Amino acid sequence: MFWLERIRFTCAACSRVAKVSLLWAAVAQRSLSVRRPPASTRSGLPQRRYTSTEYTLVLCKGWAPFWVSACRQCVLGMIVPTVLTAAGVMGMSACHDRAVAADKGFRKLAAGVLTVIPPDTSADDTEQHGDLLEITRGRADSKWKPNEAPSNTTLIERAKNLEFQRDIWYLEFAFKPPRTIDVDVPTLNQRMQRKRLWYLVYRVKNTGGRRTVVDKIDPSKRTTKKLEGPVLFLPHFVLEGLEALSDAEGTTSYRGYLDRVVPSAMAPIRMREDQARELFDSAQMASQPIAPGEERWGVAVWEDVDSRIDFFSIFVRGLTNSIRWREKARATFAKNEPMGASMEQTLECLRLDFWRPGDDGRNRDQEMSVGYAGFFERMTLGTRLIEAVGRPPLIQSSPVEGLVQLGLEWSDLLEGPGSNLAPLEKVVRKLLAMKDSAGRGPAVRNLFGDIGVEHFAALSRALTATVVAEREAARAAALTKVGLSREVVESAPLKSLAEVLKALDAIQRPADRSRLAEQLFGPAQRHILALARDLEMARTLAVLETIDADWKAITSGTARSAFTSLQTLIDAEPDAKTRKRMLEGMFGTKGPALYAAATLEHEGIDHSWVFRYETD
User: Fold this and answer.
1) Which domain holds residue 292?
2) At 406, which helix (H) or strand (E)?
3) pLDDT-based confidence at residue 438 (cuts at 50, 70, 90)
4) Which of 2, 210, 363, 603 is deepest in the core (most CB within 10 A)?
5) What is the 8-class DSSP label of residue 355?
Protein backbone atom coordinates (compact mmCIF):
# COMPACT_ATOMS: atom_id res chain seq x y z
CA MET A 1 0.00 0.00 0.00
CA PHE A 2 1.04 3.58 -0.55
CA TRP A 3 1.18 4.45 3.21
CA LEU A 4 3.48 1.53 3.91
CA GLU A 5 6.08 2.61 1.35
CA ARG A 6 9.36 3.25 3.12
CA ILE A 7 11.68 6.17 2.45
CA ARG A 8 15.37 6.51 3.24
CA PHE A 9 16.88 9.31 5.37
CA THR A 10 19.89 10.07 7.56
CA CYS A 11 19.35 9.95 11.36
CA ALA A 12 19.97 13.35 12.94
CA ALA A 13 21.04 11.68 16.20
CA CYS A 14 23.38 8.83 15.18
CA SER A 15 24.05 9.78 11.49
CA ARG A 16 23.03 6.31 10.33
CA VAL A 17 20.98 5.72 7.20
CA ALA A 18 17.48 4.59 8.24
CA LYS A 19 14.09 3.92 6.70
CA VAL A 20 10.67 5.14 7.83
CA SER A 21 7.20 4.61 6.43
CA LEU A 22 5.16 7.47 5.08
CA LEU A 23 2.49 6.73 7.75
CA TRP A 24 5.01 7.33 10.57
CA ALA A 25 6.17 10.54 8.97
CA ALA A 26 2.58 11.78 8.57
CA VAL A 27 1.70 11.08 12.25
CA ALA A 28 4.79 12.91 13.38
CA GLN A 29 4.03 15.84 11.12
CA ARG A 30 0.39 15.98 12.40
CA SER A 31 1.62 16.30 15.95
CA LEU A 32 3.33 19.53 14.96
CA SER A 33 -0.13 21.18 14.67
CA VAL A 34 -1.14 20.50 18.33
CA ARG A 35 -2.17 23.82 19.94
CA ARG A 36 0.19 24.98 22.66
CA PRO A 37 -0.91 27.00 25.72
CA PRO A 38 -0.91 30.77 25.22
CA ALA A 39 2.14 32.85 25.99
CA SER A 40 0.60 34.14 29.21
CA THR A 41 0.41 30.55 30.49
CA ARG A 42 4.02 29.79 29.60
CA SER A 43 5.05 32.95 31.48
CA GLY A 44 3.44 31.72 34.68
CA LEU A 45 0.08 33.54 34.45
CA PRO A 46 -2.44 30.83 33.50
CA GLN A 47 -5.65 31.93 31.86
CA ARG A 48 -7.42 28.60 32.36
CA ARG A 49 -6.72 25.07 33.65
CA TYR A 50 -5.72 22.64 30.84
CA THR A 51 -6.61 18.98 30.81
CA SER A 52 -4.13 16.14 31.19
CA THR A 53 -4.48 15.19 27.51
CA GLU A 54 -3.64 18.71 26.39
CA TYR A 55 -0.49 18.77 28.50
CA THR A 56 0.54 15.36 27.15
CA LEU A 57 0.13 16.51 23.54
CA VAL A 58 2.11 19.64 24.31
CA LEU A 59 4.96 17.53 25.68
CA CYS A 60 4.84 15.21 22.68
CA LYS A 61 4.94 18.16 20.32
CA GLY A 62 8.38 19.05 21.49
CA TRP A 63 9.65 15.69 20.24
CA ALA A 64 7.74 15.69 16.92
CA PRO A 65 10.57 17.18 14.80
CA PHE A 66 12.90 14.61 16.32
CA TRP A 67 10.56 11.78 15.30
CA VAL A 68 10.75 12.85 11.66
CA SER A 69 14.55 13.22 11.54
CA ALA A 70 15.68 10.34 13.86
CA CYS A 71 15.86 6.58 13.43
CA ARG A 72 13.55 4.19 15.28
CA GLN A 73 16.16 3.19 17.90
CA CYS A 74 16.81 6.81 18.89
CA VAL A 75 13.10 7.64 18.97
CA LEU A 76 12.32 4.66 21.24
CA GLY A 77 15.08 5.80 23.56
CA MET A 78 13.27 9.08 24.01
CA ILE A 79 9.66 7.81 24.21
CA VAL A 80 10.02 6.19 27.66
CA PRO A 81 11.01 9.46 29.48
CA THR A 82 8.30 11.30 27.59
CA VAL A 83 5.60 8.82 28.61
CA LEU A 84 6.72 8.86 32.26
CA THR A 85 6.64 12.67 32.29
CA ALA A 86 3.15 12.72 30.78
CA ALA A 87 1.95 10.20 33.36
CA GLY A 88 3.28 12.41 36.15
CA VAL A 89 1.46 15.42 34.72
CA MET A 90 -1.76 13.43 34.48
CA GLY A 91 -1.38 12.29 38.10
CA MET A 92 -0.86 15.83 39.36
CA SER A 93 -3.89 17.04 37.41
CA ALA A 94 -6.04 14.27 38.88
CA CYS A 95 -4.94 15.24 42.41
CA HIS A 96 -5.85 18.85 41.68
CA ASP A 97 -9.26 17.81 40.40
CA ARG A 98 -9.92 15.87 43.60
CA ALA A 99 -8.83 18.83 45.72
CA VAL A 100 -11.23 21.12 43.89
CA ALA A 101 -14.02 18.60 44.26
CA ALA A 102 -13.33 18.30 47.99
CA ASP A 103 -13.68 22.07 48.47
CA LYS A 104 -17.30 23.17 48.86
CA GLY A 105 -16.72 26.20 46.70
CA PHE A 106 -17.17 28.81 49.51
CA ARG A 107 -15.08 31.93 49.29
CA LYS A 108 -12.21 31.75 51.75
CA LEU A 109 -12.00 34.88 53.90
CA ALA A 110 -8.69 36.45 54.84
CA ALA A 111 -7.63 36.58 58.46
CA GLY A 112 -9.41 39.33 60.37
CA VAL A 113 -12.29 39.75 57.91
CA LEU A 114 -14.69 37.66 59.98
CA THR A 115 -14.99 38.71 63.63
CA VAL A 116 -16.06 35.80 65.85
CA ILE A 117 -17.74 36.62 69.17
CA PRO A 118 -18.05 33.71 71.58
CA PRO A 119 -21.21 33.32 73.67
CA ASP A 120 -21.46 35.29 76.90
CA THR A 121 -20.95 32.86 79.76
CA SER A 122 -19.68 35.43 82.26
CA ALA A 123 -22.80 35.36 84.46
CA ASP A 124 -24.57 32.35 85.94
CA ASP A 125 -27.93 33.04 84.36
CA THR A 126 -29.20 29.56 85.09
CA GLU A 127 -29.86 30.68 88.69
CA GLN A 128 -31.48 34.00 89.55
CA HIS A 129 -32.94 35.25 92.80
CA GLY A 130 -35.63 37.80 93.56
CA ASP A 131 -38.86 38.55 95.36
CA LEU A 132 -42.27 37.74 93.95
CA LEU A 133 -43.35 41.39 94.08
CA GLU A 134 -46.95 40.68 93.20
CA ILE A 135 -47.16 39.06 96.65
CA THR A 136 -44.56 40.86 98.78
CA ARG A 137 -45.86 44.27 97.71
CA GLY A 138 -49.22 43.60 96.15
CA ARG A 139 -50.38 41.60 99.16
CA ALA A 140 -48.46 43.48 101.84
CA ASP A 141 -51.68 44.06 103.78
CA SER A 142 -51.90 40.27 104.29
CA LYS A 143 -48.73 40.15 106.32
CA TRP A 144 -49.11 38.50 109.74
CA LYS A 145 -47.00 36.80 112.37
CA PRO A 146 -47.88 33.21 113.33
CA ASN A 147 -47.83 32.17 117.00
CA GLU A 148 -47.14 28.45 116.65
CA ALA A 149 -45.07 28.32 113.42
CA PRO A 150 -41.87 29.91 112.18
CA SER A 151 -42.34 33.41 110.83
CA ASN A 152 -40.81 32.44 107.49
CA THR A 153 -43.66 30.05 106.70
CA THR A 154 -46.19 32.74 105.85
CA LEU A 155 -47.09 33.54 102.25
CA ILE A 156 -45.33 36.91 102.31
CA GLU A 157 -42.07 35.51 103.71
CA ARG A 158 -42.05 32.50 101.38
CA ALA A 159 -42.34 34.85 98.38
CA LYS A 160 -39.05 36.54 99.29
CA ASN A 161 -35.65 35.71 97.75
CA LEU A 162 -36.97 32.97 95.50
CA GLU A 163 -34.65 31.02 93.24
CA PHE A 164 -35.50 30.81 89.54
CA GLN A 165 -33.72 28.06 87.62
CA ARG A 166 -33.82 27.67 83.88
CA ASP A 167 -31.77 26.19 81.05
CA ILE A 168 -29.68 28.72 79.13
CA TRP A 169 -28.66 28.31 75.50
CA TYR A 170 -26.24 30.39 73.47
CA LEU A 171 -25.35 31.01 69.84
CA GLU A 172 -21.89 31.91 68.62
CA PHE A 173 -22.05 35.05 66.46
CA ALA A 174 -19.59 36.03 63.73
CA PHE A 175 -19.89 38.95 61.33
CA LYS A 176 -18.26 40.85 58.52
CA PRO A 177 -18.16 44.67 58.68
CA PRO A 178 -21.35 46.31 57.40
CA ARG A 179 -21.49 47.52 53.82
CA THR A 180 -23.83 49.43 51.53
CA ILE A 181 -25.27 48.40 48.19
CA ASP A 182 -27.58 50.04 45.65
CA VAL A 183 -30.47 47.84 44.53
CA ASP A 184 -33.95 48.21 43.03
CA VAL A 185 -36.65 47.97 45.72
CA PRO A 186 -40.41 47.72 45.03
CA THR A 187 -42.52 50.65 46.22
CA LEU A 188 -46.19 51.06 47.14
CA ASN A 189 -47.11 52.28 43.66
CA GLN A 190 -45.93 48.95 42.18
CA ARG A 191 -42.76 50.43 40.71
CA MET A 192 -39.10 49.79 41.38
CA GLN A 193 -36.99 52.46 43.04
CA ARG A 194 -33.21 52.53 43.31
CA LYS A 195 -32.21 52.67 46.97
CA ARG A 196 -29.05 52.40 48.98
CA LEU A 197 -29.31 49.64 51.58
CA TRP A 198 -27.05 48.92 54.52
CA TYR A 199 -26.44 45.26 55.30
CA LEU A 200 -24.52 43.02 57.68
CA VAL A 201 -23.43 39.49 56.72
CA TYR A 202 -23.25 37.24 59.78
CA ARG A 203 -22.96 33.62 60.86
CA VAL A 204 -24.56 31.91 63.85
CA LYS A 205 -23.51 28.56 65.30
CA ASN A 206 -25.32 26.43 67.84
CA THR A 207 -22.72 25.77 70.53
CA GLY A 208 -25.16 24.32 73.06
CA GLY A 209 -26.13 25.56 76.50
CA ARG A 210 -25.91 24.74 80.19
CA ARG A 211 -28.05 23.69 83.11
CA THR A 212 -27.49 23.86 86.86
CA VAL A 213 -27.95 20.48 88.57
CA VAL A 214 -28.78 20.57 92.29
CA ASP A 215 -27.66 17.61 94.37
CA LYS A 216 -30.71 15.81 95.77
CA ILE A 217 -28.99 14.96 99.04
CA ASP A 218 -27.10 18.21 99.61
CA PRO A 219 -28.82 21.15 97.84
CA SER A 220 -25.78 23.34 98.47
CA LYS A 221 -23.77 21.22 96.03
CA ARG A 222 -24.40 22.27 92.46
CA THR A 223 -22.83 21.35 89.16
CA THR A 224 -23.18 22.70 85.63
CA LYS A 225 -24.25 20.34 82.88
CA LYS A 226 -23.72 21.02 79.18
CA LEU A 227 -26.86 20.85 77.05
CA GLU A 228 -27.21 20.13 73.37
CA GLY A 229 -30.37 20.66 71.38
CA PRO A 230 -31.89 22.59 68.50
CA VAL A 231 -32.26 26.36 68.93
CA LEU A 232 -34.78 28.54 67.11
CA PHE A 233 -33.00 31.79 66.30
CA LEU A 234 -35.40 34.74 66.08
CA PRO A 235 -33.10 37.52 64.83
CA HIS A 236 -33.79 41.09 65.89
CA PHE A 237 -31.33 43.67 64.53
CA VAL A 238 -31.55 47.38 65.36
CA LEU A 239 -29.18 49.95 63.86
CA GLU A 240 -28.98 53.04 66.08
CA GLY A 241 -27.18 56.35 65.88
CA LEU A 242 -26.91 59.20 68.37
CA GLU A 243 -25.15 61.63 66.09
CA ALA A 244 -26.58 65.14 65.77
CA LEU A 245 -26.73 66.01 62.08
CA SER A 246 -27.79 69.67 62.40
CA ASP A 247 -27.54 72.53 64.87
CA ALA A 248 -31.23 72.19 65.68
CA GLU A 249 -30.65 68.67 67.04
CA GLY A 250 -28.17 69.81 69.69
CA THR A 251 -25.36 67.57 70.89
CA THR A 252 -27.02 64.22 70.16
CA SER A 253 -30.10 63.00 68.33
CA TYR A 254 -31.44 59.44 68.35
CA ARG A 255 -32.11 57.55 65.11
CA GLY A 256 -33.13 53.90 64.98
CA TYR A 257 -33.72 51.50 62.09
CA LEU A 258 -35.16 47.98 62.28
CA ASP A 259 -33.94 45.12 60.13
CA ARG A 260 -36.08 44.71 56.99
CA VAL A 261 -36.79 41.77 54.72
CA VAL A 262 -35.94 42.93 51.18
CA PRO A 263 -36.18 39.93 48.82
CA SER A 264 -34.85 41.87 45.82
CA ALA A 265 -31.61 42.61 47.66
CA MET A 266 -30.68 39.02 48.50
CA ALA A 267 -29.37 38.07 45.04
CA PRO A 268 -27.12 41.16 44.59
CA ILE A 269 -25.71 40.75 48.11
CA ARG A 270 -25.02 37.06 47.54
CA MET A 271 -23.41 37.83 44.17
CA ARG A 272 -21.05 40.26 45.87
CA GLU A 273 -20.27 38.29 49.03
CA ASP A 274 -20.23 34.62 47.96
CA GLN A 275 -22.24 33.10 45.14
CA ALA A 276 -21.72 29.57 46.46
CA ARG A 277 -23.07 30.30 49.96
CA GLU A 278 -26.74 30.50 50.84
CA LEU A 279 -27.68 33.59 52.82
CA PHE A 280 -30.87 33.70 54.92
CA ASP A 281 -32.86 36.82 55.64
CA SER A 282 -34.45 37.27 59.07
CA ALA A 283 -37.69 35.52 58.07
CA GLN A 284 -35.90 32.51 56.57
CA MET A 285 -33.52 32.30 59.52
CA ALA A 286 -36.46 31.89 61.91
CA SER A 287 -38.23 29.29 59.78
CA GLN A 288 -36.50 26.25 61.34
CA PRO A 289 -34.30 25.52 64.38
CA ILE A 290 -30.51 25.34 64.20
CA ALA A 291 -29.21 21.86 65.02
CA PRO A 292 -26.36 21.35 67.53
CA GLY A 293 -23.07 22.26 65.89
CA GLU A 294 -24.79 23.65 62.79
CA GLU A 295 -23.66 26.90 61.23
CA ARG A 296 -26.00 29.16 59.31
CA TRP A 297 -25.21 32.32 57.38
CA GLY A 298 -27.59 35.27 57.23
CA VAL A 299 -27.81 38.91 56.27
CA ALA A 300 -29.51 41.82 58.06
CA VAL A 301 -30.70 44.66 55.84
CA TRP A 302 -31.65 48.24 56.72
CA GLU A 303 -33.54 50.61 54.46
CA ASP A 304 -33.64 54.43 54.31
CA VAL A 305 -30.69 54.92 56.67
CA ASP A 306 -29.53 58.54 56.84
CA SER A 307 -26.35 58.62 54.77
CA ARG A 308 -24.87 61.39 56.94
CA ILE A 309 -24.39 59.05 59.90
CA ASP A 310 -20.72 58.51 60.76
CA PHE A 311 -21.05 56.57 64.04
CA PHE A 312 -23.62 53.90 64.77
CA SER A 313 -24.25 50.76 66.82
CA ILE A 314 -26.00 47.51 65.93
CA PHE A 315 -27.88 45.64 68.66
CA VAL A 316 -28.50 41.93 68.05
CA ARG A 317 -31.15 40.15 70.10
CA GLY A 318 -32.01 36.46 69.99
CA LEU A 319 -28.53 34.99 70.51
CA THR A 320 -29.42 33.71 73.99
CA ASN A 321 -32.43 33.27 76.25
CA SER A 322 -30.67 34.94 79.20
CA ILE A 323 -33.23 37.28 80.73
CA ARG A 324 -33.54 40.09 83.28
CA TRP A 325 -36.61 41.71 84.78
CA ARG A 326 -37.45 44.73 86.88
CA GLU A 327 -40.50 46.66 88.09
CA LYS A 328 -41.83 49.42 85.90
CA ALA A 329 -41.31 53.07 86.73
CA ARG A 330 -44.88 53.58 87.99
CA ALA A 331 -45.59 50.07 89.21
CA THR A 332 -48.61 49.72 91.49
CA PHE A 333 -48.90 45.93 92.00
CA ALA A 334 -52.62 46.32 92.51
CA LYS A 335 -54.54 43.25 93.54
CA ASN A 336 -56.85 43.32 90.55
CA GLU A 337 -54.14 43.65 87.86
CA PRO A 338 -52.83 40.60 85.92
CA MET A 339 -49.69 38.85 87.04
CA GLY A 340 -46.62 40.61 85.63
CA ALA A 341 -48.45 43.78 84.60
CA SER A 342 -46.16 45.93 86.74
CA MET A 343 -42.97 44.17 85.56
CA GLU A 344 -40.92 44.44 82.38
CA GLN A 345 -38.48 41.89 80.95
CA THR A 346 -35.66 42.00 78.46
CA LEU A 347 -33.33 39.51 76.79
CA GLU A 348 -29.58 39.93 76.67
CA CYS A 349 -28.41 41.45 73.40
CA LEU A 350 -25.08 41.99 71.68
CA ARG A 351 -23.85 45.51 70.98
CA LEU A 352 -21.51 46.15 68.02
CA ASP A 353 -20.05 49.61 67.34
CA PHE A 354 -18.94 50.91 63.94
CA TRP A 355 -17.87 54.12 62.27
CA ARG A 356 -17.44 55.29 58.69
CA PRO A 357 -16.51 58.46 56.79
CA GLY A 358 -19.68 60.36 55.98
CA ASP A 359 -20.01 60.78 52.22
CA ASP A 360 -23.30 60.79 50.36
CA GLY A 361 -22.04 60.69 46.80
CA ARG A 362 -19.11 58.31 46.75
CA ASN A 363 -18.07 54.93 48.14
CA ARG A 364 -21.38 53.27 47.29
CA ASP A 365 -20.08 49.85 48.34
CA GLN A 366 -18.10 51.21 51.25
CA GLU A 367 -17.21 48.87 54.10
CA MET A 368 -17.54 50.30 57.60
CA SER A 369 -14.88 49.99 60.28
CA VAL A 370 -15.30 48.26 63.62
CA GLY A 371 -15.33 50.69 66.53
CA TYR A 372 -15.80 50.35 70.27
CA ALA A 373 -18.25 51.56 72.90
CA GLY A 374 -17.48 55.16 73.83
CA PHE A 375 -15.76 55.97 70.52
CA PHE A 376 -18.65 58.12 69.28
CA GLU A 377 -18.90 59.98 72.60
CA ARG A 378 -15.17 60.72 72.64
CA MET A 379 -15.23 62.01 69.08
CA THR A 380 -18.35 64.11 69.76
CA LEU A 381 -17.00 65.77 72.90
CA GLY A 382 -13.54 66.27 71.41
CA THR A 383 -15.01 67.88 68.30
CA ARG A 384 -17.08 70.21 70.47
CA LEU A 385 -13.92 71.37 72.26
CA ILE A 386 -12.08 72.03 69.00
CA GLU A 387 -15.04 73.98 67.59
CA ALA A 388 -15.35 76.10 70.74
CA VAL A 389 -11.67 77.04 70.80
CA GLY A 390 -11.50 77.65 67.04
CA ARG A 391 -14.70 79.68 66.78
CA PRO A 392 -13.56 83.11 68.15
CA PRO A 393 -10.76 83.67 65.60
CA LEU A 394 -13.18 82.68 62.83
CA ILE A 395 -15.94 85.16 63.72
CA GLN A 396 -13.60 87.69 65.43
CA SER A 397 -15.25 87.51 68.84
CA SER A 398 -14.16 87.58 72.49
CA PRO A 399 -16.86 85.49 74.23
CA VAL A 400 -15.43 85.64 77.74
CA GLU A 401 -15.10 89.42 77.58
CA GLY A 402 -18.64 89.67 76.23
CA LEU A 403 -20.03 87.71 79.19
CA VAL A 404 -18.19 90.03 81.56
CA GLN A 405 -19.74 93.07 79.85
CA LEU A 406 -23.20 91.60 80.40
CA GLY A 407 -22.43 90.64 83.99
CA LEU A 408 -22.93 86.91 83.31
CA GLU A 409 -21.06 83.82 84.46
CA TRP A 410 -21.00 80.58 82.48
CA SER A 411 -23.06 78.99 85.24
CA ASP A 412 -25.84 81.53 84.53
CA LEU A 413 -26.24 80.08 81.04
CA LEU A 414 -26.85 76.44 81.95
CA GLU A 415 -29.76 74.83 80.17
CA GLY A 416 -32.70 73.19 81.88
CA PRO A 417 -34.26 69.84 80.91
CA GLY A 418 -35.68 70.21 77.40
CA SER A 419 -34.70 73.89 77.29
CA ASN A 420 -32.03 75.33 75.00
CA LEU A 421 -33.31 78.85 74.31
CA ALA A 422 -33.45 80.03 77.94
CA PRO A 423 -29.73 81.09 77.93
CA LEU A 424 -30.28 83.17 74.77
CA GLU A 425 -33.35 84.79 76.33
CA LYS A 426 -31.26 85.70 79.38
CA VAL A 427 -28.63 87.34 77.17
CA VAL A 428 -31.31 89.38 75.35
CA ARG A 429 -32.76 90.58 78.64
CA LYS A 430 -29.27 91.54 79.86
CA LEU A 431 -28.81 93.58 76.68
CA LEU A 432 -32.18 95.19 77.29
CA ALA A 433 -31.19 96.08 80.88
CA MET A 434 -28.06 97.96 79.83
CA LYS A 435 -28.54 101.64 80.68
CA ASP A 436 -26.28 102.81 77.89
CA SER A 437 -27.82 101.47 74.69
CA ALA A 438 -24.65 102.37 72.83
CA GLY A 439 -22.86 99.57 74.67
CA ARG A 440 -25.18 96.88 73.31
CA GLY A 441 -23.42 96.67 69.96
CA PRO A 442 -19.90 96.10 71.38
CA ALA A 443 -21.28 93.51 73.83
CA VAL A 444 -22.99 91.60 71.01
CA ARG A 445 -19.81 91.78 68.88
CA ASN A 446 -17.66 90.47 71.71
CA LEU A 447 -20.07 87.63 72.46
CA PHE A 448 -21.14 86.64 68.93
CA GLY A 449 -18.83 88.50 66.55
CA ASP A 450 -19.91 90.80 63.73
CA ILE A 451 -22.19 88.06 62.44
CA GLY A 452 -24.14 88.24 65.72
CA VAL A 453 -25.23 91.79 64.94
CA GLU A 454 -26.54 90.56 61.60
CA HIS A 455 -28.44 87.75 63.32
CA PHE A 456 -30.27 90.14 65.66
CA ALA A 457 -31.05 92.55 62.84
CA ALA A 458 -32.45 89.77 60.64
CA LEU A 459 -34.73 88.54 63.45
CA SER A 460 -36.08 92.04 64.11
CA ARG A 461 -36.80 92.58 60.42
CA ALA A 462 -38.55 89.23 60.12
CA LEU A 463 -41.06 90.17 62.84
CA THR A 464 -42.07 93.45 61.18
CA ALA A 465 -41.21 93.21 57.46
CA THR A 466 -43.97 93.47 54.87
CA VAL A 467 -44.90 90.04 53.52
CA VAL A 468 -47.67 88.50 51.41
CA ALA A 469 -51.19 88.39 52.86
CA GLU A 470 -51.15 84.70 53.68
CA ARG A 471 -47.82 84.98 55.42
CA GLU A 472 -48.96 88.12 57.27
CA ALA A 473 -52.03 86.32 58.61
CA ALA A 474 -49.97 83.41 59.91
CA ARG A 475 -47.46 85.78 61.57
CA ALA A 476 -50.21 87.84 63.19
CA ALA A 477 -51.83 84.70 64.61
CA ALA A 478 -48.47 83.54 65.96
CA LEU A 479 -47.77 86.93 67.57
CA THR A 480 -51.17 86.83 69.22
CA LYS A 481 -50.40 83.38 70.58
CA VAL A 482 -47.31 84.72 72.38
CA GLY A 483 -49.11 87.87 73.58
CA LEU A 484 -47.65 90.37 71.10
CA SER A 485 -48.71 92.45 68.13
CA ARG A 486 -46.93 94.06 65.22
CA GLU A 487 -47.22 97.49 66.82
CA VAL A 488 -45.62 96.27 70.07
CA VAL A 489 -42.79 94.60 68.15
CA GLU A 490 -42.08 97.79 66.19
CA SER A 491 -41.96 99.88 69.36
CA ALA A 492 -39.88 97.44 71.46
CA PRO A 493 -38.08 94.96 69.16
CA LEU A 494 -35.53 93.69 71.69
CA LYS A 495 -38.10 93.12 74.44
CA SER A 496 -40.42 91.45 71.95
CA LEU A 497 -37.62 89.12 70.87
CA ALA A 498 -37.10 88.08 74.50
CA GLU A 499 -40.79 87.29 74.87
CA VAL A 500 -40.78 85.25 71.66
CA LEU A 501 -37.75 83.24 72.84
CA LYS A 502 -39.49 82.59 76.17
CA ALA A 503 -42.61 81.34 74.39
CA LEU A 504 -40.62 79.11 72.04
CA ASP A 505 -38.60 77.64 74.89
CA ALA A 506 -41.79 76.69 76.76
CA ILE A 507 -42.87 74.38 73.92
CA GLN A 508 -41.66 70.83 74.61
CA ARG A 509 -42.15 69.18 71.24
CA PRO A 510 -39.44 70.23 68.74
CA ALA A 511 -41.84 69.96 65.80
CA ASP A 512 -44.35 72.35 67.43
CA ARG A 513 -41.57 74.75 68.38
CA SER A 514 -40.22 74.76 64.82
CA ARG A 515 -43.72 75.35 63.42
CA LEU A 516 -44.29 78.40 65.60
CA ALA A 517 -40.82 79.78 64.78
CA GLU A 518 -41.58 79.35 61.07
CA GLN A 519 -44.82 81.29 61.44
CA LEU A 520 -43.05 84.12 63.31
CA PHE A 521 -39.77 84.47 61.45
CA GLY A 522 -40.11 82.49 58.25
CA PRO A 523 -36.73 81.49 56.80
CA ALA A 524 -35.02 83.82 59.30
CA GLN A 525 -35.61 81.33 62.12
CA ARG A 526 -32.20 79.85 61.31
CA HIS A 527 -30.66 82.92 62.96
CA ILE A 528 -32.08 81.79 66.31
CA LEU A 529 -30.31 78.45 66.00
CA ALA A 530 -27.07 80.18 64.99
CA LEU A 531 -27.18 82.50 68.02
CA ALA A 532 -27.98 79.62 70.39
CA ARG A 533 -25.11 77.58 68.92
CA ASP A 534 -22.60 80.43 69.28
CA LEU A 535 -23.75 81.02 72.86
CA GLU A 536 -23.10 77.35 73.66
CA MET A 537 -19.58 77.73 72.26
CA ALA A 538 -19.03 80.85 74.37
CA ARG A 539 -20.13 78.99 77.49
CA THR A 540 -17.80 76.09 76.68
CA LEU A 541 -14.92 78.51 76.20
CA ALA A 542 -15.64 80.18 79.54
CA VAL A 543 -15.55 76.82 81.35
CA LEU A 544 -12.26 75.89 79.66
CA GLU A 545 -10.77 79.17 80.85
CA THR A 546 -12.02 78.52 84.38
CA ILE A 547 -10.28 75.13 84.60
CA ASP A 548 -7.08 76.46 82.91
CA ALA A 549 -7.32 74.16 79.91
CA ASP A 550 -4.46 74.13 77.41
CA TRP A 551 -6.07 75.55 74.28
CA LYS A 552 -3.04 74.76 72.15
CA ALA A 553 -3.19 71.09 73.13
CA ILE A 554 -6.87 71.00 72.20
CA THR A 555 -6.49 72.51 68.74
CA SER A 556 -3.17 70.95 67.71
CA GLY A 557 -4.40 67.34 67.65
CA THR A 558 -7.42 65.26 66.78
CA ALA A 559 -10.81 65.09 68.49
CA ARG A 560 -9.66 62.07 70.50
CA SER A 561 -6.53 63.83 71.75
CA ALA A 562 -8.61 66.90 72.63
CA PHE A 563 -10.90 64.73 74.76
CA THR A 564 -7.91 63.09 76.44
CA SER A 565 -6.51 66.48 77.45
CA LEU A 566 -9.88 67.44 78.94
CA GLN A 567 -10.29 64.11 80.74
CA THR A 568 -7.19 64.75 82.80
CA LEU A 569 -8.64 68.04 84.09
CA ILE A 570 -12.12 66.67 84.76
CA ASP A 571 -10.89 63.63 86.65
CA ALA A 572 -8.68 65.85 88.80
CA GLU A 573 -11.78 67.57 90.27
CA PRO A 574 -12.63 65.73 93.51
CA ASP A 575 -16.19 67.04 93.94
CA ALA A 576 -18.75 65.08 91.89
CA LYS A 577 -21.28 67.94 91.78
CA THR A 578 -18.66 70.36 90.49
CA ARG A 579 -17.64 67.87 87.81
CA LYS A 580 -21.26 67.54 86.75
CA ARG A 581 -21.75 71.29 86.46
CA MET A 582 -18.54 71.70 84.46
CA LEU A 583 -19.66 69.01 82.01
CA GLU A 584 -23.09 70.62 81.69
CA GLY A 585 -21.42 73.96 81.06
CA MET A 586 -19.24 72.60 78.26
CA PHE A 587 -21.61 70.11 76.63
CA GLY A 588 -25.15 70.90 77.80
CA THR A 589 -27.55 68.76 79.80
CA LYS A 590 -26.39 65.57 78.07
CA GLY A 591 -22.75 66.28 78.89
CA PRO A 592 -22.44 64.13 82.05
CA ALA A 593 -24.04 61.10 80.36
CA LEU A 594 -21.86 61.47 77.26
CA TYR A 595 -18.74 61.80 79.38
CA ALA A 596 -19.64 58.72 81.41
CA ALA A 597 -20.15 56.70 78.22
CA ALA A 598 -16.88 57.99 76.76
CA THR A 599 -14.88 56.89 79.79
CA LEU A 600 -16.74 53.66 80.59
CA GLU A 601 -15.19 51.38 77.95
CA HIS A 602 -11.57 51.11 76.92
CA GLU A 603 -10.32 51.27 73.37
CA GLY A 604 -10.00 47.85 71.74
CA ILE A 605 -13.19 46.28 73.15
CA ASP A 606 -15.18 45.76 69.96
CA HIS A 607 -18.39 44.41 71.49
CA SER A 608 -20.39 44.21 74.69
CA TRP A 609 -23.32 42.22 76.08
CA VAL A 610 -26.09 44.41 77.49
CA PHE A 611 -29.65 44.22 78.81
CA ARG A 612 -31.74 46.98 77.21
CA TYR A 613 -35.27 47.73 78.36
CA GLU A 614 -37.75 49.24 75.93
CA THR A 615 -38.50 52.12 78.32
CA ASP A 616 -34.85 53.25 78.67
Assistant:
1) 115-373
2) helix 399-406
3) confident
4) 210
5) E
